[in-house]
Design goal:
The chain is mainly α and 337 residues long. The chain contains 17 helices and 4 strands. The longest helix is centred in the last third of the chain and has 25 residues.
Length: 337
């Protein structure tokens, strides 16, 4: 989907939190700057020249988006820091502005941030386009060419998936033993779990992620979502068993559905559901360009730690993880329990 970086703080921050994309952008854009305290920085005069904008325009954006720009590296130099910076540049910045006692500087990250905000600058528009191309290239390169199963690059995914299979068996056994109906009841009550957690049934989820008919949706889910599904399955299996034993016969599907809805409302799950919805909505928009419309209110910027988790040095494809002797040893111990 088209990304309007000037309108969405989440989209801007998703790029600025991706250090791999920033490294490529800094290398390929070659914007110049001054090396200061181990990074490239830019004075306001340099930024004005870069984007072909006025001093008043920069000041307006700093005023309107000051917190965002400061969080991404914009800072004011005063006192000794300013004197050190002037010495570094041999005093060439004295003519910048009327206040020589303070000086605003932008890190490379803050320059990109400003470029994503500016609507008056053609140079900023071109920069946004190039940055988006770089982000796509970096994402594809580090994710092995596709992002459909980027969730599986999480080092915790395999263990969560393996353990969920055990809870899934307990859940399907409970549905079989304590709920009336045909084989279709498994899909129906599985969808109730999905809707409780992320407000979509299996068909809706597959459509959002553009999954093929044969794709298994749980193979695309993040560890936190899998763990929460496992908790639901284990808990509901227990509740079905208690209700069935108390009744002395199988529950009707209407009775079972009420049990599901009551279970969902337990306060224990409130923070876990919020966390799962936020992670699914935010990560899928960032990594898969997939918008869960029913979860749109939960979208946040993806933190830097998630880029490390799914694109960093510790992240590995499922095939690489399965070929790791240490990983296989863990699964053998679990299987032998």
């Amino acid at each position: 989907m088209a990304k309007d970086l000037t309108e969405s703080i989440h989209e801007r921050q998703n790029i600025l939190n991706n250090r791999y994309a920033l490294q490529q952008a800094e290398e390929h854009l070659d914007l110049g700057g001054i090396f200061y305290q181990d990074e490239m920085v830019f004075t306001k005069q340099q930024v004005m020249s870069l984007f072909e904008i006025s001093d008043a325009t920069i000041e307006r954006y700093i005023s309107n988006h000051g917190d965002e720009l400061k969080n991404n590296g914009y800072q004011i130099l005063r006192g000794q820091k300013l004197r050190d910076f002037k010495d570094l540049t041999h005093g060439t910045l004295i003519s910048e502005g009327t206040k020589t006692s303070v000086l605003g500087i932008f890190t490379f990250r803050a320059v990109l941030n400003l470029g994503m905000l500016l609507t008056e600058s053609e140079q900023a528009r071109l920069l946004r386009s190039r940055v988006l191309d770089i982000v796509l290239d970096v994402m594809a390169q580090r994710a092995g060419g596709h992002t459909k199963f980027i969730n599986q690059r999480d080092e915790n995914y395999l263990l969560a998936s393996f353990q969920e299979e055990n809870y899934r068996k307990k859940f399907t056994d409970a549905v079989d033993n304590y709920i009336e109906g045909s084989q279709w009841k498994y899909a129906r009550f599985t969808n109730l779990i999905y809707k409780s957690i992320f407000q979509e049934n299996a068909t809706e989820y597959k459509k959002v992620l553009k999954l093929a008919e044969h794709d298994k949706i749980r193979e695309t889910m993040y560890t936190e979502v899998i763990n929460l599904i496992a908790s639901f399955e284990a808990g509901i299996a227990h509740e079905l068993e208690l209700a069935g034993q108390k009744k002395g016969s199988k529950l009707t599907q209407k009775e079972a559905e009420k049990l599901f809805l009551d279970f969902e409302k337990h306060p224990l799950f409130t923070p876990l559901i919020l966390d799962a919805r936020t992670k699914m909505a935010s990560r899928d928009l960032c990594f898969r360009d997939a918008l869960h419309e029913k979860l749109e209110a939960y979208i946040q910027a993806v933190p830097e730690a998630d880029f490390e988790r799914f694109l960093g040095e510790k992240s590995r494809s499922l095939q690489e993880q399965l070929s790791d002797p240490d990983t296989l040893a863990v699964f053998k111990r679990l299987k032998d329990r």
